[in-house]
């Protein structure tokens, strides 16, 4: 007997249902959340940079989401200045540079940006190494001593696992060192499964990966969040050492998680629920 996809996404350990309280931040297919990064966090007040996977000229690319005591109190558009991205899927803050971020498209085009008030300005645009068949939905940065490590991933689909890439990254010339890669999948191989919809790296180096079931613009969606391994630094590169048994951090029925970012020791999640718009939740 075959199991439902939502169950297959959780078979690595006991089911951990979500306690997240989802809050709407967008309506319709052009207002989803495809990536999140924290702009400021002071006590119970949090402001986050949200990227949107829009493709057409004139459509929004970035928004500011404001939360107070875990509740969304404001969502407002931001202005993007510079080369216009097509299909932004991820964004990560640059460690030790509070106003700087790297946003990445599904085609692995990356943008080093600086945020000032509600203006996002492109400092430099560059391409991440990738396979031509990759559809990138993930990007994360982590300080490793005096160096910076970058991790990004093809989302994978069905029987095709995600390929997770890692390398040292120079913010000065936007070059990457030797690239390492590893294959990962959830164990669910239906065509609608996306094995990696976003990535976050904990202070201790653990790799958090969201996965999602996406059967179409009207769902029904479901997602899971796993801790799948660790980022391990070496002299010339950084590698992902996969856990023998990934740890399930939660399952989320009815939501297509595409954004995971760390927040005060927890996570801030964002969804792109297509026709049902975008939602966020602290967990």
Helix content: under 10%
Q: Classify the secondary structure makeup into a structural class.
A: mainly beta
Order of helices and strands: HEEEEEEEEEEEEEEEEEEEEEE
End-to-end span in angstroms? 33 Å
For the record, the count of structural domains works out to 1
User: From the 3D coordinates, which CATH architecture would you assign?
Assistant: 5 Propeller
In the CATH hierarchy, the third-tier topology is known as: Tachylectin-2, Chain A
Overall geometry comes to globular
The average pLDDT score comes to 93
Report the major sheet: 5 strands, mixed
**Name of the CATH first level:** Mainly Beta
Q: What is Rg?
A: 17 Å
How would you describe this structure to a colleague?
The protein is an all-beta fold. The protein has a single domain (5-282), classed as Tachylectin-2, Chain A (5 Propeller), CATH 2.115.10. It contains one helix and 22 strands. The chain has one helix at 5-8, and strands at 23-26, 35-42, 45-51, 62-68, 71-77, 79-81, 88-93, 100-105, 109-116, 119-127, 136-144, 147-154, 162-170, 175-176, 180-184, 193-201, 206-213, 222-233, 238-253, 257-263, 266-272, 278-282. The strands form five sheets. A five-stranded mixed beta sheet has the order 6-10-9-8-7, with no helix packed on it. Strands 11, 12, 13, 14 and 15 form a five-stranded antiparallel beta sheet that branches. Strand 4 (62-68) and strand 5 form a beta hairpin. The two termini are 33 Å apart.
